[in-house]
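Structure tokens please, single chain.
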Amino acid sequence: MLTASGLGSTMLAPPAHAASEITIIVNKEPITTFAIKQRSAFLKLRRVSGDTTTAATEELVDEALKKQEIRRRGINVPDGAVEQAFQKFASDNKLTPSQLGQIFGQVGFSEKAFKEYIRVQMGWGQAVQANVRNESGSGGRVTEQEAVRRMLEQGGEKPSTTEYTLQQVIFVIPDAKRSAMVAVRMKEANAMRARFSSCPGNYEFAKGLRDVTVRELGRVPQPALPAAWKDAITKIASTGATPPQETERGVEYIVVCESRAVSDDRVAAMVFQTQDLEKLG
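Here you go.
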């Protein structure tokens, strides 16, 4: 998290604006050396250690994919909302918006780039919420209160399910090169998958590969698993990786970092809802 102390402790000379070149194209969206340089400066401001150039590249690829999904869903984040979030961030760090912009400039970042970062985070939050609503369906949703009522009817027995901690590995393929690169990227994905030892280790392995991003998906209960991956994920006993699939982003696979049995009212509601849907279809 970026804090006032982090902002105040890193003060560098303004960088020279060298010529910018396109380094990566993610589904027709270019990522330039200048954007990577700016994001690297932003990572340092956030006290991220290690190879910030590689980390910046991976973060920008991830954001490009998020922006494409945001556009696909028709989500629009108004400029006013972004400006309000920017001003709140400055206020939380006891700075004026002007002072915050100056600090960004001094470390090689920019107010414009930060506002774009805010826009993506806000848009992605809306996309995730929309996906959750779609997964649960507009009708027949089982609330936690309804789940408790059903459990009481069944003698107090609370249904359980498996919760998976997931990671997504994406081998990005530009649209223009898809037909020529799919087989190669599939081979690379299988090679990385075969060498899986741990989820943290995937980040280290990905550093040596071109246009590969690793994303944390967090904890997902079995009823909420995406349909395209559900069967492959549930076949994994404890940890491991699914076979890679070709997707709109390129070639990707899902890693199960951990799995465990869980049982609470929220999970019970999801289990009951899944059972209801199975009865319907």
